[in-house]
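User: Hello, can you help with two protein structures?

Assistant: Certainly.
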Amino acid sequence: MAGGAVPHGSADVSRVEAPVTIKAYLMCAFAAFGGIFFGYDSGYISGVMGMNYFIHQIEGPDATALRSDHKSLITSILSAGTFFGALMAGDIADWIGRRTTIIIGCVVFLIGVALQVASAGLGLIVAGRLVAGFGVGAVSAILILYMSEIAPRKVRGALVSGYQFCVTVGLLLASAIDYATQDRTDSGSYRIPIAIQLLWALILGTGLFLLPESPRYFVKKGKLDSAAATLSRLRGQPIESDFIQDELAEIIANHEYELSVAPVGGYWSSWLNCFRGSLFKSSSNVRRTILGTSLQMMQQWTGVNFVFYFGTTFFQDLGTISNPFLISLVTTLVNVLSTPISFWSMEKIGRRPLLLWGALGMVICQFIVAIIGTVTAADAAVKTMIAFICIYIFFFASTWGPGAWVVIGEIYPLPMRARGVALSTASNWLWNCIIAVITPYMVDTDKGNLGAKVFWIWGALCTCCFVYAYFLVPETKGLTLEQVDRMLEETTPRTSAKWVPHSTYAADMGFTDKVAVQHVQHATKEEV
């Protein structure tokens, strides 16, 4: 392989990764900060669309609410941008690197926010949210990829869950700032919440200049010396350390193995690799792609973004709540306080059990809200509905919120990982967009007027999430990304929790018998 020597590997499955250091924690924790502007950008619009000044700017001085089509457009256009931004980011990340792609995403996002701040009508706010969406899509896809590739296996689930926690913090900050500016009678009521987003992107983009590139990206590009130096920096060990040499050998061996199974050709062939293999084999590329994209679809099917996108206007339409902005702030606070539970549970309980129990808890809460909303609209009933909506958010925030992001970062082999994560994230944003478009037409009083009855739909979809998790989601906790590959080849989702690593790719590929193999030739040289 061009760019260095293949290091000597180990047949000991316990030595395929260096010990966890505080440095590794801090690097991943900072990368997770990107979730703040993803969450903030998703959350601020709910409050802004309920502000009198903003409504008058869009609809005219006599309007009391946004039209359903305008509400749908303003909300969904961000998701449309993020869909395409996530798809493009997969290619860019394989071309110029994970870290650089995230920085570029931050720059695009800053341009979109500037357009929104300058807006005084519908056209520019929509254009700004579309441009910002491209940046958010790129960052949300590649941050998960970047964190999954640099995080140590024993804490990968917890650290990637930190990304979802930052998303919830962003939502909370958005609600708090909306609450603080709602009564302003000038353009500051909506421009202040929009402009604050500039800060998050500047912090993330600037800080990433200080973080290393992913060593797995360098292995994919054939730059082994750079991969070794980066891995040494991430793990806090000297390059000559056996831990660094063994982990790097395992990454290289796994990459060699994957290329031998599915050689990488030209540009379109590399995309087609994501859809090759048998639908009936859990380790095939097409099964992994379906798992990642459908898992993100299911996360949107839980209906949680209905609460965060349209919560303020939904609570207004219930008619018995005096301060819907405050209730929206409470729901986002529940979201923030519940997510840190996953830092512990993701590694101790596992991904699969959390997704199963989380779906079950959400189903129960959603059907209770639907039943109450169908039977009565009394003040006590509305308070009960709000309580169960908060419990439902607790179940989401501690399970499906972080769990879906953790799993999509773990299931793809290196040759297709960037594109696989990009497709999965694009699926999230596609369904996010679909829900944002159709929801106002389902619940607004001048349209479908379902009100709280919409929770019958979310409950039915969450039932699908439970069945889906039982049959299709594997257990990946405690494994390196390379061991996840081997586990998927040897188990089914329902038996995956019992799988134990028994060999290394370095041993299987013969790297344990070589002190250094210079310039191994393979298809990596031809990759984009």
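That covers the first. Now for the second protein you mentioned:
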Amino acid sequence: MAFVVCVIPRDGVTLLPGETDNISHVNTDPPAVTIQIEDPSHANEQLDKKGGLPNGHTISGNGTIGHSTGEDNPSFSPEGEAEAIPRDTDSTMYSNGSVVQRGSGSGGSSESRPNGCHHQCSTMEVNHNVVVTDSEEKRKEAEILAEKAREETSEDRMVSLVLKLVVCLLCGMVMGLALEKGRVFEPRSIRCQFTYQIWIMMKMFLSALATGLLCLATLSVLPFTKRAFEEARIEYVSCISSKGILMASIGGMLLGAGMALAGACPGMVLAQVGAWAGQGSGLVTFVGALVGSFGYAVCHPFIDRSLGRSTPYKRHLADDWVSHVPFALLALVLAAVTAGIVVAIELWRPWRTEILTSPAENFEPTWFMTEYAWPPYIAGILIGMLQIPLVLLIRDTLGGSSSYCTISSQILITRRMEEAVPYLAKFKRGLSSWWQVFFVTGVILGAMSSSLLSHTMSKVDGVGWGVSFFGGFVMLFGARFAGGCTSGHGISGVGVLALLSFIAVAAMFAGGTVIGLIGWGMGKAEVIDPFCPL
């Protein structure tokens, strides 16, 4: 008596219920086999690692499984899902996760088999859900069913992809709205933060961090969100695993210096584009940032060889060093401290004393969406809460500088160009890259909508175009050097307690402070226009 076992991969995995080995033996004599085939063309390699097939069985490169002896090898071509029946030694096998009956040689009863089982076939081919038999009619039926299943799977994936991208766009619009209403996107707010004359940016930043910490701590303990949080945390660490303390420090200082020069950051410049700040200076900064991302990509091989780590740190996270303290507890403590600092700064410097009068003439707001300004800590809370949908749907955290790499990578139109700039080419495709493009597009749209509602479109002062372009270049070069920007390192990196992010944020403020104080001094000496107009 001889058997042919049908194994139909489902999503690359076929396992017997309750069994986890790559090769699971059904209780028959001679034994049938089922195989986990992630790629049928490499099935033999998988089998070799497990000692090969039992004697008398063969497998071809395309997934054909058969018995080399005997004259009545039955094969199966399921036309529909069979009703699950108990597993026994004579009548069942598992196919595509369900239980179907099988024949047992010439002595088997054809009535006991599901539709599609027949007695006199010699082989069964399995190739990614396409089941082919010696019967032309059955082959066509199986191909039609397989094609329908592929179409349904493709449609499901497309719906899921569209949903995720729409959510990213909406999240970006919320961030753009918050940046514009919080007035933190104004070049004045950013430059004067680095001279420590205006604290709007600090209040927004620390509020977003505290809220993000609270959200991430909650996601890390809830049973139905814990896995998503862990995956997002792993994803973040993988993005900075090749960076060391030196790269985080140098990159952070360059990022801060560029921010002070341009009066922007990789996220806020998008709001400047949407609100048309400085009569287009925000757009110039954005173009400079794109050029900066390309410039870093060209220099990356040399930088990585010189300063990168070939062996990543074994402990990237704060809770790796204090393993007896859970992440949630550390995050909540840091959130409480951060929130306390925001309260203290607000009591010292109330936000209404730091904003300018609305430039909208003869316009009276009628509801909160038409208000010129919101408290910066409200804007920060909205931004911090965006961690929840991004972690649950994208398995990633808030960030924006990678989107510049994705956008600039589109000029690599040939494979030779991609091979010439491999760092940039890896951002060209895939949801992991493109979700940020939708997110930053949303930021532009959100800021545009907010400024239109408050009648402040194109009424915010900017900086000179030359300084804007150079500042944008340095800013993005530094962000990619350090492996993240103000939102990536500052809100998400610190939010997941990545130690390199603490270093990068400190370096960012150091670099920005140096340029800010130099600019302030030159402005006081009337060498340049006032660096930080109050």
